[in-house]
Task: structure prediction
Amino acid sequence: MAETVTISGRTSPGPGPGLLASLDPLLREWLPRQRWFAGKGRPVTGFSLVAATELLPVDGTKPGLYHLLVRAHQSPAPGDCYQLLIGVREALPPRLAPALIGHVEEGPLAGHTVYEALYDPRPAEVLLEALRTRARIGGLRFERAPDSPEIGPGLTPRLMTAEQSNSSVVYGDTYILKLLRRIVPGTNPDLELPLALALEGCPRVPAPTAWLRAEFADEPYVLGVLQPFVQGAADGWELALSELSKGEDFGTEARSLGRATAEVHVALARALPTMTLGHAQLEQLVNGMTERLDAAAQAVPALRPYAPGLHSAFSALADLAAEGHTWTAQRIHGDLHLGQCLHSPSGEWSLIDFEGEPSRPLAERRMPQPPVRDIAGMLRSFDYAAHSTTPAAPDWADMCRAAYCSGYAEVTGVDPRTDPVLLRAYETDKAIYEVLYEARHRPDWLPVPLSAIRRLANPTT
Result:
């Protein structure tokens, strides 16, 4: 059983301002190297402290732990706020070498080594203990669902190393704690939507067991969510690639995933308000898609020959809206792809990570949208999987896309393919986003979305 953890709970003012000044040169080097840092390519010009909380005191024999919310300033855009968990030791043991941030030369931690604390079991235990006991530490609020089972002590933590925009710690194959890294004030859908789905009794999304919130300067923040860990589950992306590499059919899994997506959409429509998108709303939506296309074509020359055909995807939607067609919008996942799905050993699918696209403003991520946006994201994900092999397997992607849509229709009674104009518009918008992303970050992958761009620009060929 893990050692009992005593939480300090001292909050700035105190060590905060002096602590940040002493960490500044180390964070300028370390922070941009993290996968979840959103401002890559622009130098950090400074930091400002939103909040600092001491969770474990600095002790010569045991690690200290600070919880920091730090704003990283980068010109010309306003700085993003990041959640950091800083461990403090006199020296790091070899097992924690990958976690090193640096050696502090001045300030309250002078002479100590600081590191990413989530690699270290003892600091990671502090977070679960605080959630277990519903701790209130300064501005931090560790909360639990009223009907959730008691969280037992002694669950060994381990950091998952495959995360992208956030960090997750698994506790004894029982719970997984997702800690948001890029923090914005407001109601985060990564907690809001799973809570709503739990109230609806939707089994396709693990119900939140506990969560970490904060309030600083009268602004609320969601910092992390603890959910049951689906033991033995396969990541949808990895499962698809594995089946594809073996030449196995993925149609049954794709159909089942379509049903799971539909069940989540139906539950969200019951739990939260929906709205009708008329001409004015569709005009605004189409304008946004058109602006993103024009900006991407300006940035990526390879996209320019297809721009006229891609514009037709959006103008066709605008024409339908002008004729009086309307669509229903509701809360959706917002960033659905194979990597956001878990396939359990029993064959059931779960959907996870309801944060939406982190690069989009929080208010936009919480807006009702047509469910077809999620569907388009998944269809694009099948296409990506098919093109990750050599040679590419477009027939496999077509099969998966058809099976997924058929499974969706089994639950809702409506096949997404029966609304081809709306589906094409959202697939086009997603593929344009992919072109811009790959051109900036993974040029070798650019042919994948460009192959879809050719198809979407000439849908009759």
